[in-house]
Amino acid sequence: MSRPAAGLPLVLASASPRRLDLLRQIGIVPDRIDPADIDERPRPRELPAAVARRLAAAKADLVAERHPEATVLAADTVVACGRRLLPKAEDETTARRCLELLSGRRHRVLTGVAVRAPGETHLKLVSSVVAFRRLTQSDIGWYLESGEWRGKAGGYAAQGRAAVFIRFLSGSYSNVVGLPLCETAGMLPAYRA
């Protein structure tokens, strides 16, 4: 499989400051940030892995139309408990429901990563397994007060206070934060410093 050529500008199709920080951590600095504004609702009966793949590809496609002579990197991260897709928490009630569901259970964090360059598209799905310890209502209240849950898939941010809830993690930690670095770097070797 070929890889995007050096010399093309790199566009990050994400408004996530976490994804930008993660890329910088491995020496990849996008030339431009151009978030894709798409409908992220799952389709009826669509499984979590399919959602992550489809949304990453759709974001890359949309931004590539605006930057046809660039390499576009897009990603979408979802949290799944069994076959159930957890929402991005936009209000405290949703965040509380997510945390109560995840309490004492394992769940999967799935990220679709899409790289689109002129004439080529590469798509990967990365899965990590996370287990939370059993959470008390006091734990949940303490976390909700932080506000870190806002806009986060599954209602938590592993890189923040929720780290104290994680008793087990198998797979990529950076995937749980929002961008699997090992796989992304492999898809973008020409952009590493």
Summarize the structure.
The protein is 32% helix and 25% strand. The protein has 193 residues and is of the alpha/beta class. It has a single domain (10-191), classed as Maf protein (Alpha-Beta Complex).
Task: Report on this structure.
This protein is an alpha/beta fold and 193 residues long. It contains six helices and seven strands; from the N terminus they run E-H-E-H-E-E-H-E-E-H-E-H-H. The protein has one domain: Maf protein. Helices cover 32% and strands 25% of the residues. Strands 1, 2, 3, 4, 5, 6 and 7 form a seven-stranded mixed sheet that branches. A hairpin with a 2-residue loop joins strand 3 and strand 4. The radius of gyration is 17 Å and the shape is elongated.
From N to C, what is the helix and strand string? EHEHEEHEEHEHH
**Uncertain residue segments:** none
Q: What gyration radius follows from the Cα positions, in whole Å?
A: 17 Å
The structural domain count equals 1
Number of strands: 7
Number of helices: 6
Topology summary:
Elements: E1 10-12, H1 17-25, E2 32-33, H2 48-66, E3 71-81, E4 84-86, H3 92-102, E5 106-117, E6 120-132, H4 137-146, E7 166-170, H5 173-177, H6 181-187
Parallel strand pairs: 1-2, 1-3
Antiparallel strand pairs: 3-4, 3-5, 5-6, 6-7
